[in-house]
Amino acid sequence: MRIGDLAAAAGVTVKAVRYYESQGLLKPRRESNGYRAYEAEDVVIVREVKALLSLGLTAEQTYPFIECLRAGNDRADVCPASLTAYRIRIAEVDQRIAELTALRGRLTGLLTDAESWRTNQR
């Protein structure tokens, strides 16, 4: 199938497919006319990449999942490297939650201080 067909089947743009290819996530064969030719498994890979990117994983972090699919697994997240990638992303999310919680605490303190000061100025 051609790039536009792949993009439509996977629910992404042609630009996204080209990006995934530039990141080494897709390896289309070239036809004699130079056009990229994709296989049905590429639709599954593009959908998986799209889903993983929506979870905040980077293109590089999706490699273990893609390799898991290419190894013949029905799911991209059943291989040890995929599970490790999930754990890393969860740790990143936990770190961000901690940072946001600390920021919220600082802002709440500033708000409380400002409200108290304002009340005492009346």
Q: Could you report the average pLDDT, rounded to the nearest whole number? A: 95
CATH architectural category: Orthogonal Bundle
How big a fraction of the residues is strand?
under 5%
Euclidean distance between termini CA atoms:
73 Å
How would a crystallographer describe the biggest sheet?
Answer: 2 strands, antiparallel
Low-confidence spans: pLDDT under 50, at least 5 residues? none
Which structural category fits the helices and strands?
A: mainly alpha
Radius of gyration: 22 Å
Order of helices and strands: HHEEHHH
Counted beta strands: 2
User: Reading side by side through the largest sheet, how are the strands ordered?
Assistant: 1-2
CATH class descriptor name:
Mainly Alpha
Percent of residues in helices: 55-70%
Overview of the structural elements:
The protein is mostly helical and 122 residues long. 66% of the residues lie in helices and 3% in strands. It has one domain (3-120): Multidrug-efflux Transporter Regulator, Chain: A, Domain 2, CATH 1.10.1660.10. The protein is built from 5 helices and 2 strands. Strand 1 and strand 2 (36-37) form a beta hairpin. The termini are far apart.
